[in-house]
Amino acid sequence: MRVIVRTVSEFCITVGTLIVLFVVYVLFWTGVKADSVMHDQIDRLQRQWSADAAVHPTAKASAPATPAAYHYGRPFAIMYIPRFGFTWNKPVLEGTGTDVLKKGLAHYARTARLGQEGNFAVAGHRRTYGDPFLDFPELRKGDAIVLTDGTTWFTYRIDKGPYKTVPTDVEVIDPVPRKSGYTRPGRYLTLTTCDPEWGHSHRLIVWAHLDSTQPVEAGKPAALRR
Q1: Cα angle 198-204-206, degrees, rounded to a multiple of 5
Q2: Burial zone of 18 (CB within 10 Å; 0-12 exposed, 13-18 middle, 19+ buried)
Q3: In three state form, how does the secondary structure of 192-204 look?
């Protein structure tokens, strides 16, 4: 009997230890790895932009006649959300596969390109892998969401959200999302993340419109100035 009790106790301790280790992995280690990867993605972008500027020093910061293609899993922009703090910035990569979402924010490939007419839609983890959208519920109407592609600053302003819906509600990333309040084509931005914080039964959505643009050589937009 004592042997059985001791065996059961040892088993419970082992299981408990494994659960603790798994929680540490989810809460801490995935975040450490993701933060490192996201910093690398941003460094990669900035190096590329610097190299492009050196090759074309007189190039204007306007959209090229034939915009460069977005490639799956590769970064093409950096997002800033002042509401989350002036040190918050994340890379935006093409595609929404699970492998991409571990590296930063993910652009829904079937939606519009950054700054162009249509709906530029981006997803991000609420928890794990760096918790990029942890504070998503804090977003408010009028908040700025700023992005750059290395030549232009794009400042969007939130019009609606956070709006709660279900994962099957794919209309939220339509060119003119029906529940956004928009009634005509425009230059929109949609952000999506999971809800609740540790679950995925629902989604939180915010919608924004393109408020202004300016070339990077003009300096940071007003929304990013302290």
Answers
A1: 145
A2: exposed
A3: EEEECCCCCCEEE
CA 89 – CA 85 distance, rounded (Å): 9
Phi and psi at 20, nearest 5°, equal -60, -45
Provide the residue ranges of all domains of the chain, joining segments of one domain with +: 39-224
Catalytic residues: 125, 194, 203
pLDDT tens digits, 27-66: 555 667 878 999 999 999 999 999 987 876 655 544 444 5
Kindly state the tokens that stand for 98. Answer: 């699970």
Task: Say whether pTM exceeds 0.90.
Answer: no
| Architecture of the domain defined by 39-224 | Beta Barrel (2.40)
Q: Is the peptide bond before 196 cis (omega within 30 degrees of 0)?
A: yes
